[in-house]
Amino acid sequence: MAITGFGVEGKATYEFLKMSTSDVDINGGMEIHIFDDNPDTKVPEGVVFHHGHTIPADFDVVYKTPGIPTHKMVLENPATKISSLTNLFLENIKGKVIGVTGSKGKSTTASLIHHILSIAGKKSVLVGNIGTVALIKLSDDSPDTWYVYEMSSYQCEFLDRSSHIAVITNLHEEHLDHHGSFEKYKVAKWNITKYQSKNDYVVIPEGLAFGGAFETQAKRIVVKKPAQNFKTKLLGEHNQMNIALAVEAVRCVGISEDEARKAVETFEPLEYRLEKVGEYKGITFYDDSLATIPEATLFALQALPEVDTLILGGQDRGINLAGFPKALVQTSVQTFIIFPENGERMVEGITERNIFHAESMEKAVRLAYVHGKKTVLLSNASPSFNLFKDYKDKSAQYRKWIAELGG
After folding, report:
1. In which element (H, E) is residue 146 found?
2. Residue 274 CA: distances (Å) to CA of 124, 139, 285, 298
């Protein structure tokens, strides 16, 4: 039995396989092999470790951790099947799954669905890309359990079965360094519907292109922009659509729109998404650290039309930025504070606006205090792994320097 990548999901997959007498009989001599590109990876006693991601020909299946790019793997036997923790979960549950994917909005939409189900008295469990590894929740599994599973493109890539209800929030260029092209990324996302039957449902927003390779047998529910805004603490028109998608998803479970609307009113926004940090020296700071594509930053600027200073830029994943500078000029932003590697491309051609370079969060916040007038927004329109460990590290540094320099 082979597992490639030994991060959080890889370790959970190992624990599940070790305990599953139907799949792996440790006492019977079947070995678990771990493949990882970190030579210092610590593996449990009795496990065979391999440096790298070359899978020998004698393995029928390899369970891939989501963060391992497929192009890094070398299958010596082309017939070796690539599977995942998500497939193991879907194969073994008694309950039903509402799978949520999309380029942006999937965490909020999945959390909304979970919140509405819980308020309605349903047994709901929120798992997946949002931070809770699905397999560890199987201990309390039952036929009346609803699993709301947020699925990244990595988790969708090698699905061999689908959720009962699939929700796709939107599709924009993202993770091209992993998938290689936008088309392959879309195919990975659409896998969430690939194995649905005519008794299943797929919920998508109006305007999302599908058809051809993206056909599905499931009942399609196409959601239009809400005619009447939902009462909510969430900011922005994009969140009105996220709510509408969530409401349609729970209607498939039997929850009325009125019941769902009341639950939405009590939903608290998630961290790192248009989150108000506070007011310092007359300037209000907002944290949108999870805005990793241009569309997300533009949504944020629509939700906060008073932003005069924007901190953006980060790791360059080859996303097409054509039209992004022009769109930024149409906003209220007068000062751009840009990070490497792609900050310059994001403001290319912009004139008659202030543009400053920053190589650290401390410098970015210092510049924001000097040049900000009323509202400062951190919304990078790209990942920031070149400067920070992850979005949480970026957010923590942002808040640290706001407090220290604003005190």
Report:
1. strand 145-150
2. 26, 35, 10, 12
What is the rounded CA–CA span in Å between residue 312 and residue 295?
Answer: 13
Q: Rounded CA gap, 19 and 32, in Å?
A: 12
2-83 has which fold? Rossmann fold (3.40.50)
* pLDDT per position as a tens digit, 286-332: 999 999 999 999 999 999 999 999 999 999 988 999 999 999 999 99
Cα-to-chain-centroid distance, residue 320? 19
Count of residues for the chain? 407
Ranges 111-120, 178-187, 236-245, 385-394: which has the least confidence: 178-187
Domain ranges of the chain: 2-83, 87-265, 275-406
The encoded tokens of residue 296 equal: 């997300």
CATH level 3 topology of 275-406: Protein-Tyrosine Phosphatase; Chain A (3.90.190)
The edge-to-edge listing of strands for the beta sheet with 165-168 is 123-128, 145-150, 96-101, 165-168, 201-205, 219-223
**Rounded Cα distance, 192 and 286, in Å:** 33
Q: Which residues contact 349 (CB under 8 A, 6 or more apart)?
A: 325, 326
- Measured CA to CA, the distance from residue 211 to residue 214 in angstroms comes to 5
Give the Cα separation of 154 and 131 in Å (integer): 14
Residue 25: the pLDDT is: 45
The Cα 364–Cα 367 span in angstroms is: 5
Q: Is the confidence at residue 213, as pLDDT, over 70?
A: no
Strands 275-280 and 283-287: antiparallel
3-state SS, residue 16: helix
- Give yes or no for residue 27 having a pLDDT over 50: no
* pLDDT at position 262 over 50: yes
Residue 111, φ and ψ in degrees, nearest 5: -65, -35
Task: Bin 69: left if φ > 0, else alpha if -120 < ψ < 50, else beta.
Answer: beta
> Which residues are CB-contacts of 42 (< 8 A; sequence separation ≥ 6)?
none
Please identify, in words, the CATH class of the domain defined by 87-265: alpha beta
Whether the Cβ atoms of residue 305 and residue 396 lie closer than 8 Å to each other: no
Contact 365, 283 (CB under 8 A): no
What is the distance between the alpha carbons of residues 397 and 384, in angstroms, rounded to a whole number? 12
Residue reference for tokens 């491309």: 345
